[in-house]
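User: what does the whole thing look like in 3D?
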Amino acid sequence: MTIQITKTFSLLLAGAALASLVAVQPVLAASPPDTLVEGFAFDDIISVDPGEAFELSTAEITGNCYSMLVRLNPDKTSEVVNELAESWSVSDDKLTYTFKLKPGLKFASGNPITAEDVAFSMERAVKLDKSPAFLLTQFGLTGDNVTEKAKAVDPTTFTLTVDKPYAPSFVLNVLTATVAAVVDKKLVMSKAKPVTPTDKYKYDTDFGNDFLKTGYAGSGPYKVVAWKANEAVVLEANPNYFGEKPKLKRVIYRYMKESASQRLALEKGDIDVARNLEPGDMESVSKKEGLKVTSAPKGTVYFISLNQKNADLAKPEVREAFKYLVDYDAIGETLIKGVGTIHQTFLPTGQLGAIEDKPYKLDVAKAKELLAKAGFKDGLSVTFDVRNIQPVTGIAESFQQTAAQAGVKVEIIPGDGKQTLTKFRARKHDLYIGQWGSDYFDPNSNAETFTSNTDNSDDSKNKTLAWRNAWDVPELTKETQSALLEPDSAKRAAIYEDLQKKVLADSPFVIIYQQVEVAGYSDKVKNFKLGPSFDTNFVYTVSKD
Amino acid sequence: MTTGFETAPVSRRDWLLSDRPTSRMQARLGRAYMIWLRFSANRLALAGLGLILALILVAIFADVLAPFDPVQGDLRNARLLPPGTGSYLLGTDDQGRDILSRLIHGSRLTLAVVGLVAVIAAPLGLLVGTVAGYAGGWVDAVLMRITDIFLAFPKLVLALAFVAALGPGIENAILAIAITSWPPYARMARAETLGVRHSDYIAAVRLMGASPFRIVLRHVMPMCLSSLIVRVTLDMAGIILTAAGLGFLGLGAQPPSPEWGAMIASGRRFILDQWWVATMPGIAILLVSLGFNLLGDGLRDALDPREAGR
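Assistant: Here's the predicted 3D structure for the full assembly of 855 residues, as structure tokens:
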């Protein structure tokens, strides 16, 4: 009798405990077998409209849920492969690109995919003119001419006309960006809301932007079912997908900010994949039985830049000396272990023309000598704007220590991302540590920002990294532009190699490492891989035991 | 009973405890001795005093005591070593710096914060409180409403706002904490002042023609001092915690200075695997706060006028 009562009572207790758990936080006890649950810090998502989104986390969502004409080849990143396109050709004057679509393709809604949809996707991206629009407008597309320059010739033929004879590899690489994702015109326009045209926005429709901010109109292996800011993103398999069907029915990205909480959830089985592990947690996950880690280099490089408006930092010897004051090896072995590899050139490994030269290492004596030559025998003092996140604060502190050995007094000014970035963009910093992620998988993205400064005045429209550090380099700017128009890939690569060597030798950029994205996952998850870019972190190949 | 009263040599103790002091000096020393006797009878208070004295000594001799450089670490070879590895008694942090050396040098910052806040806030509160209490009327109303405004905000939130406006840094943190900690002292000093302003000796001083300024400074303030000292000592722990809180949020001391709160913040990332990085400065803060609290408790027991003479 007593036992009976105790049992009932404990059952009641357990029920109450469970109920309270559910009430406090909708925790999944163990992830369901047909669902992949990822812990992911996706606080950067502001919209899942491919014409508007330009954030790293959104790139992954768009990459998995939308299709483009062409895609980056994840196995050989200097190439592109066809996705919606069956074939493409470029005219002899290198101005007109013609794409033939694969026949019989359907959107998730069941509507057929036609060249009309492709043209519409370009049109709305250009006309909406959100952050990623520059990728398309750099080809000379404007709101006024986009319907002429990007148009459907017949239901399966799309042509794009660009304003200059760019290298075809450049144009195709840009078209792999998520802004060129093809949306379902019929569905989107049925949800479009009328707007009153103004001087800034001349159109009487929002092209479905309001709907697509949280909605979905694509044709990828998964559909976006829901996105709740800082809560979850839910994807569901698209039954109308034209390629190999995804193995899992659902993918849930659960918002988890802290590395430690992701690690704990992964160890308990609440999530299958932890996406934002810091080096320490990474290491313990890799040692734990039943868990695995994977990594992939990404197109983001971290650097310390020296503002050339500061007369001290503008001396070439000082620029060079600072490159000898970073303890690359120790940083690589400790602070960024697993999340980055030491890299000193501005093109990330994997992009066309990238070279792996690493001529610099910590050499205090050499730096002292160079500083003495520049007239700073007794050292100098500079301020250093540092964003309050790891690993940059750790690197900044390490640099502060090594620089002190050469008599360079570094005063760290910490701030949040917005504060430091605002100061950096206004060219008011001395030293700044930051990162540059390629906007699209083409060497021009990084080359342009590191070497091109078309107008060094304070109110210049061009805001490249070279401009932000007041590095006035007309020759390099010209060279970068010439690479853009070089049709021969080998010759184009050679120009980028030359640019990288020049930047390595003389620039105000102390490039430290290339980001490696890491993830820890349960060994129940099969075929989990990270891609070379954020929009190639595919989940549709993943299955579970 | 071998010696008579008159011939007995007066011991120092008896001289101090004499109930008929022959000079002002003897009276004052006698009173101080009584306080010390009451204080030293309290073991915990002595322990607190010991902790604080140790802190002061460590801060003075930091350069001699610290086995390593507090800001120069060995990133490559000595990162995140557990306590007791080689000569790193308390282990090393994520920059390969010796935690013990950083704690030792950090004691200077802690003492500086506590000392400066006490020097700024206590006299300010005392002045506002005694003036308000003695003057009464609209002066009292205005001063006390200002005090109310400051009291209306949680201390840490107000300090955060000040630091955010002034810019991060240890000096600004000290200023912010001082600005936020004077109101309780003002309230207390006012209450004490109201208690004595109508007493006979004040009336006597006034009859002798003393100016209000002189009365407040020489005859009211001293009456508030003992409770003020107790209150400030008890608040020290809170001040240390606030300073550490600001440091933890990145608004106090800036890297690479070894401020304890900032050390905890940077060690937080390693709490699962390298517990000592955040724990050691935490223990230091705990010990020093405990020391100040015990000392303050002992002082209250010793100084409280209601307890005196019993």
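In plain terms: Residues 6 and 88 of chain B are 64 Å apart (CA to CA). DSSP finds twelve helices and no strands in chain B.
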